[in-house]
Amino acid sequence: MSKEQRAQIDAMLRQPRPEGPRSVEAIRAGFEALMARMIVPDGIRTAQTTLGNRPALRVEPDNGPRAGTILYFHGGGWVYGSPESVLSLTGHLVAKTGFEAYSVDYRLAPEHPFPAAIEDTLSAYRALLESGQDPSAIVFAGDSAGGGLTVTTCLAARDAGLPLPAAVVTFSPGLDATRTGGSMDTKEGLDPILTRRSVEHTGALYLAGADPHQPLLSPAVLADLTGFPPMLIQVGTNEILLDDSTRLAARARAAGVDVILDITADVPHVFQSFVGVLDEADEALDRAALFLRQRLRAAGTAHTSAG
Prior knowledge:
Largest sheet: 8 strands, mixed
Helix content: 40-55%
Distance between the termini: 46 Å
Number of strands: 8
Radius of gyration: 18 Å
Order of helices and strands: HHEEEHEHEHEHHHEHEH
Number of domains: 1
Structural class: alpha/beta
């Protein structure tokens, strides 16, 4: 365990912040500055591209990718964040798996509230399918709000009659716009990043008056996950969103979905971002990479034997 590392990160994340609500511009700038401090691995290359009429960042190994594509959705409360801000996550997933990744620059609230983000991520997935990619060679991954999008994009794809991806990996997902999880209150104070007030503020910008009591906004409590692909849900105990993950895992199990709920003690929201600084982050990404390699290999084997 890495008690000293965890304590240092917790202290860094608790640095004093301006009092009162911040403007959207200030929130976005602060998040980009924080994420710019994260470690991006060597051995990858990036290129700007377009996927489903939205900008996207393509990330691949320097020596070329193996068969398989990670469609990545960045975090940021549906209000901030970008493909560049999560390059430590996409870069390490690419480096550890050998797959290529497309990180989607979906539209953000408040300029583009719900359901714009889901429309964009579904459009990106549809574009991969229309380019000839086999769904059994595609996986969804995402963190925080983007982790929520891995689930809601699957729901939207299923509703649209599209085949689902081979697997889903989600880091500290936001899955409940009703904010009814017990951890919203029991973890307040332990969480060095998020508060009920902060997530309700950004959540209101995304909702723009929409009823949160619907599967595409609160899948942890309302979604029917029947037919979903295997899922890996990673979350830390020091998160107000912990129960978003535990309740989604319970719904997945009840629907007969192959699900792994991977909880790490005493780490913050999207702790995997601290890869190279926090031992638990490296270990969690190793587990995520192994899961993705196994799922794509299994899907490819099944596809070959069925063909």
